[in-house]
Request: fold
Amino acid sequence: MDAIHIRGGKALFGETKIQGSKNAVLPVMAAALMIKDVCIIENCPRISDVYHMQQLLTGIGCRVTHIGHTLTIDARNIFEDTMSGDNVTGMRSSITLLGAMLGRVGEVTMAYPGGCVIGERPIDLHLNALRRMGVVIYEKDGGFTARVKELEGAVIHLPVSSVGATENVLLAAVMAKGVTVIQNAAKEPEIITLCEFLRQSGAVIEGIGGSVLIIQGRHELHGTCFTVPADRIVAGTYLMSVLGTGGHIFLEDAPAEQMRSVLQIAEEIGGEIHISREGVDIIAGEHKRALPYVKTEVYPGFPTDMQSPLMSVLTTAEGISIIEETIFEDRFRILEQLKKMGAGIERKGKRQAVISGVDFLLGCEVTAQELRGGAALVIAGCMAFGETVVRNPCFIERGYEDICRDYRNLGADIYIG
Ligand code: UD1
Reply:
């Protein structure tokens, strides 16, 4: 079985280019399904989550090609009458298609989504919001059918500013009759990207970037050519790595503007950051300072997706750090893996991890259990002395195009095999 092998314990030097954003491209792909035309999506990352979404779209009748980093989606002739959703069942990224399918066809059957094992990940907010737009939901074991004759605009207040729910309502709203107002909408950069794509395709959306989005539905949508922005989480992962190992790296295209909270944390740990039009340059400090308290928050706060990578770095910081996870309730799965490498981490209640910095980590065999936790184990492997073997790289491949290539660009001794 494949595993990532790392001979760690050396500083990283070099530069690498940051791929297109996973969380931005998936909803854009879903949106393309609603457009009876051809969309060209540039800078599309070659990752397994995108391949799954391609399969879903193909199963629904879209013609999809992915050449290099250019993805073309032709949704002119989808199987409108056979789209019961059998193709969708069981696919992890299916929830992203819910609003789009209702918008285009008015019916879909889905299994409850899987995805990363980082907590309950309910979809009640998605379903309740869509109900307000006239969608009727029939639940049956392990899944549900959602049906609507005509989507109607509505005022929707999201009790939690969920990224996925905001995206689904946005997509449905673009196809709905009348005006939809989303209150307490998520403000993550990926929402802005989706709005920009929709606007470029002819949709009318106001309030982009804020917590109230106003969508005038039923404007004619047309194909467009759109470029996916660079992945702020992938950039953050590599940035954390150099803080962990020491060294000096340049991340080409890293979206500094979207990474403010992460860059601030990097400076608190001791890193020196230089931002330019071309990307972000990071010089690790000589000493790694512990962080007395850091918590994950919705954007622009410190992202939950960066929590595990940060934890890896703090395992060898000088002093005691506390991380509080406020977004997902079960996102400390790497704790036991890091402990195997010699880290001093204890859980305090359900939401906090207390990290007592140790002098060094030692390589050993560890197992990735989800995407960002897996990447964090690669960071720990780069930091640790000796060889680290990270099992289950398939989790990492969901979101990182070629993590070994990128780390080799930064001078790491790493391969998959
Ligand atoms: C998205 C991102 C993920 C990121 C997360 C938070 C994608 C593909 N994934 O996930 O990488 O970690 O945003 O920034 O873009 N919740 C409910 N009911 C719902 C929906 C969500 O209670 O119906 C809760 C969740 O359990 C969680 C919180 O809301 O506690 C935020 O989740 P949400 O923003 O929806 O995350 P995702 O869209 O799943």
User: Anything to note?
Assistant: The CA atoms of residues 37 and 223 lie 5 Å apart.
